[in-house]
Each structure stands twice: as C-alpha cells, then as structure tokens.
Amino acid sequence: MNKKPNYLKRYIISSYALIWFLIIFVAGTASMVFHAPPVVMWIIRNLLAWSPTLLLLLGWNFFRPNESRIVFIKRYFSGEIKIFPLLLSFFLTFGISILSLLIFSIFDGKPMMSYINFGTTALPLSIFLSFTSGPTGEELGWRGFMREEFNSRYSFVKSSICQGLVWCFWHTLLWIVDSEFTDLRAIPYIISNIVVIISITVLMNIFLERHNNLIYSVLLHFGFNIIYVFLDADIMFFVILTILYLIITPLAVLFRNKTQNATKANI
C-alpha cells in the first residue's frame, strides 16, 4: 500500500532550501559583488519575501495535486470583508509596536520620534515596498497552505505554535546577515523574534478563523512590519515588545475561547 505523501513536510523543507539559496546566491551576490544600491536590495528582499508563495504556486502539483490553484486562492479570499475587523487587524500589531516604542522612549528619556529614521528613500515608496514584501508575499503560503495543513493535524493553539515556529526559523539566516545585533544582544533579539512571531501567528489565526480572508492577515502583517522600516531603537525596545505580546496574545486566546463557548451555548 502506497504511503500518502507528507505535503506539509515537502513544503517546509522546500521553502527553507529556497530562502537559503536566494539569500546566499542572489542577495549575497547583489550586495557583495555588485554593491547594489539600497532600493535594489529592497526589491531583492521583496523577492525573498515572496518566495513561500511563488514556491507554492509554481510547484503546485508537488504540494497540492488534488486541488486547482484557482479554487485554493478563491477559498482563502472568500470571507466577507468588514471594515472594523479590517482596521483592527492593522492597528492591533501597529498599536503594540507604537506602545512598545512609547514605553521604551519613556525609560530612555528621549522623544519617540528620535527613534524614527525615514532614511533616503521616499516615504510613499518605502510604504509601498513594505506592503509588497512580507505582508502580500508570504501570506498565501504561510497562512493559506501551511495553516490549513497544520489545522488538519492539531488543535488551534498547537497548530498556531507550529506555524509560528516554522515561520520564525525561516528567518534564521536573515537574523545573521540583516541584523545589527551581532553581539550578546542577539540572544534577546532571537528570543523576541520567536515569541513575537508565534504571537502574531496566533492573532492572525484568530482573525482568519472568524473571517476566512487572507486580507486580514496581510494587514496584520503590514501593521507589524511598517514601523521597522523606519525604526532605529536598541534591544530594550524588543524586550518591551516581547512582554506586551506575552500579555496580549493569551488574552486574545481567552477571548476567542470565551466567544466560541458562548456561541456553542446559544446553538
């Protein structure tokens, strides 16, 4: 009897292999050999961010041979879009980052805006490149295919943690080549990444479970990413960010469970 292929394992291994290849041979060559300007490197980073979705769509028959791409994509954008949850999805992660920066600025005794550096790239272009990187590039792969595969195996919380860990350590090489924290500060930085990415995955899945439209996770992802385009803060910011997510995420799960129990009781 033929054993059913483990499509989830295939996808995870392939996505890791692809991102390592792109970082080392594409981004590394562009940076170290051709000394590409910042805007070009940003476009390359966007290509890296799109790799989970491009991998899924181009290698579709290798990961999901029993369903068409169109049916899959339509299913993950089928949920009704409601304005308030849509705005909440963005401002939840954006607000947590702003609150972290506010607390950090109070402890550091400096104005919040002193940690924001708009750089040399035009603001509209920076926002556009941020939105078209991870937020739009990763979600169909991670919160579409991978979430569905993990959800078929585990409970909500366990599935979310597994998804978060895969998504988190997919960034491993980027922590090495694209982070200023290369000394002992790398330890709390990595811990922060693990905790925050798992927490964001949980929050995304709460929205997706209720609304079934990837636009919510796209905006939640964008709300998290946008401030880091301009942020110039020390490691203590990430420590504060981690603490806030450790407080807010369990509360969100408790609210989700309470809402589900109330719904079941009324049926």
Structural class: mainly alpha
N-to-C series of helices and strands: HHHHHHHHHHHHH
Number of strands: 0
Proportion of residues in helical segments? over 70%
Count of all domains:
1
Largest sheet, described in full?
Answer: none
Written account of the structure:
The protein is an all-alpha fold and 267 residues long. It has one domain (80-266). 76% of the residues lie in helices and 0% in strands. It contains 13 helices and no strands. It has helices at residues 7-33, 38-58, 60-63, 69-76, 83-108, 123-131, 134-137, 139-151, 156-169, 172-177, 186-211, 214-225, 235-266. The longest helix has 32 residues, at 235-266. The chain is globular and about 55 Å long. 30% of the residues are buried.
